[in-house]
Amino acid sequence: MWHNNILDTIGNTPLVRLNKVTKDIPATVLAKIETTNPGNSIKDRMALKMIEDAEKSGKLKPGGTIIEGTSGNTGMGLAIAAVIKGYKCIFTSTDKQSKEKFDALRAFGAEVIVCPTNVEPEDPRSYYSVSSRLEREVPNSWKPNQYDNLSNSQAHYEQTGPEIWEQTEGKVTHLVAGVGTGGTISGTARYLKEMNPNIKVLGIDTYGSVFKKYKETGDFDKNEIYPYITEGIGEDFLPQNVDFSLIDHFEKVTDKDAALMTREVARKEGIFAGNSTGSAVAGVIQMKDMFKEGDVVVIIFPDHGTRYLGKMYNDDWLRDRGFLKDGKLTARDIIGKKDVQEIITIDCEKSVLEAINTIKSLNISQIPVTQKGMVIGKITESDILNSLLENPSIKSQPVKNITTAPFPFVDLNTSIDRISGMINKDNIAVLVESEDGKIEIITQYDIINAISA
């Protein structure tokens, strides 16, 4: 038997038991593996549903353009459907999202516009606002608005909920899912609670999102909002698809715990899933006292790990954020092994001759250049030599005239391997801000000294 097109393969995803990461939980814990959808995420379900409902209502017309704000997965579902149905796509997203997500969207012919993360939703630069503006400006366009379009949750009421009920033979006792647009958890919960009102629905939230406090107090507290790294869950507003009456409890999970558990799931269960999966599994472990023997806990695994190769599955990315520590030396260790000495800098208005005298007297080969105390560039012996050969009178001119790009800054947790890779004949040092706010310089000599100490 064959399918008429790729859209016919959406849904009917497998339910897989978790064994190692959840070994301390007395219940049976099952993962709903949504990566088997053609776009490798659960968002394929609601993307197709939103399009089909829009076609029926006349909002989406033949040859039209689909414009949506998306972190990538909804965009992928929309883009795949658009290919089959003959629509164009323009997506807006945030600079927090992984590059792999944008590359995947562009692979299907979509246009992607990247917007800043740390702005209010009402800000004209936000990805919500930009998508709304484009909908007004682009002829024959339609914005699905996955956050407030109730076709989103309806897709899960019609598909995801019934699948879980059937696959568990009605034995499911708990549903666990990350809450972003709210469509997945609300639609699935509505069906399951209709089948059995005693089923508990547990939403996974992140620090920096408003959901948990709003559920518990009814207070939309803007002080709860701040930037976070975890992708796919949490929000700084209340989407209409989030039905708080269906969600019994919200559990917050840190960025670090979410990132590390994402890797654990791959290494211990062989399931290559995304960041929000790590958050959901970490949340279940935090809530383990809620479960007892005989319970059947279903966790939604929304998307695939390939979209996070540059982030959660990248050791250097994790080290830069202090999420991962191992036996390798870091910038902090290198600085700690250096002789205590003040970093030498030179103001950009000082003369080149003063820079030459400083280099000679201190027997150094490079100096960071500052302006009002801020590092803006550098000069090296070779910079000075090349400038003098071209124009001997350059000695009387200000240093800023021969300043080149600054040494790159690294985090204190940056590994020695990465620092070594950044230092070469074109870039002979890196800078790092110490814990007391001082700027330190790391050269090849400092690395050798740290290794041999």
Automatic annotation (TrEMBL):
Organism: Mucilaginibacter ginsenosidivorax
Name of the protein: Pyridoxal-phosphate dependent enzyme
Similarity remark: Belongs to the cysteine synthase/cystathionine beta-synthase family.
A molecular function GO annotation: transferase activity, transferring alkyl or aryl (other than methyl) groups
UniProt domain CBS: residue ranges: 339-396
Cofactor(s) listed: pyridoxal 5'-phosphate
PANTHER family cross-referenced by the UniProt entry: CYSTATHIONINE BETA-SYNTHASE
Source domain of life: Bacteria
Chain segments annotated as transmembrane: none
